[in-house]
Specification:
Layout: E1 2-4, H1 14-30, E2 33-37, H2 42-57, E3 62-63, E4 66-68, E5 77-80, E6 83-87, H3 95-114, E7 125-128, E8 131-136, E9 141-146, E10 155-162, H4 169-172, E11 176-178, E12 189-191, E13 197-202, E14 209-214, E15 218-227, H5 228-248
Parallel strand pairs: 1-2
Antiparallel strand pairs: 2-13, 3-6, 4-5, 6-8, 7-15, 8-15, 9-14, 10-13, 10-15, 11-12, 11-14
Helix pairs in contact: 1-3, 2-3
Bound molecules: the ligand COc1ccc2cc(-c3cnc(C(=O)NCC(=O)O)c(O)c3)ccc2c1 and manganese (II) ion.
Manganese (II) ion binds at residues 146, 148, 209.
Length: 249
Amino acid sequence: LHSDSPPFLHKNNEDVVEEMCRNVIRDMDTYGVCVVDNFLGEERGKAVLGEVIDMHTKGVFRDGQLVSSTGRHGDLKTIRGDQIAWIDGKEKSCKNIGHLISQVDLVIMRANKMLNNGKIGQYNINGRTKAMVACYPGSGSHYVKHVDNPNRDGRCITSIYYLNLQWDVKRSGGLLRIFPEGSRGDKVADIEPIFDRLLFFWSDRRNPHEVQPAYHTRYAITLWFFDALEREEACRRYEKERKLQLSSK
Ligand SMILES: COc1ccc2cc(-c3cnc(C(=O)NCC(=O)O)c(O)c3)ccc2c1
Ligand SMILES: [Mn+2]
């Protein structure tokens, strides 16, 4: 699952990107999950972290809070404790986040071209969401087991870049646990949200996952990549539902 990538300075070297793409394709085909460590290198990684911390300090994050009153006494149990901000990477105060996004794009679009005549895992990736910068505040915030794309909304790959220096799961929690489908609970993928780690996994029901309670501030940047066909069908469905709702008013 782990493929160490060489230091950043060679990153733009064609055959290094090529090699990384082959690892991503191999791991996605074999496990549906892929981890690339030292993705940007320490200097660039810290520059991205600096921009995220600045955003947090400026109060840019909004509660991603989804709550449900599941407790008997109607107490509100949080489903999701993260705070989020959407970034397209062109903002002048986010040029390092913008560079991270372009590097992840490079890997995904190259992988998309390389195998299965222009598809990765039978997908044809033609777009993505903006970057979701997420902060789990250290107060035991967590995210219950969920599937990112349970109903074919077009997202096929979840890509998460972690920013947490000297993160120790034993002390700080915040482990991402993926329960790959058909693993009958005995095989899980435990991903520590460590600094400069890039993670890919299929966004659909193949990868239910949870974020275990975090006891220190935990930062991550997520991009979801779209499969052209699934996205087009989802938008068509959405358009039809919208028209139905409008006509029934
Ligand atoms: C309707 O608007 C929104 C806006 C943002 C949303 C973000 C998530 C989400 C999904 N997954 C994770 C996750 O699995 N993180 C794993 C990790 O950090 O290691 C996460 O942090 C956040 C879900 C629904 C949303 C709906
Ligand atoms: Mn998720």
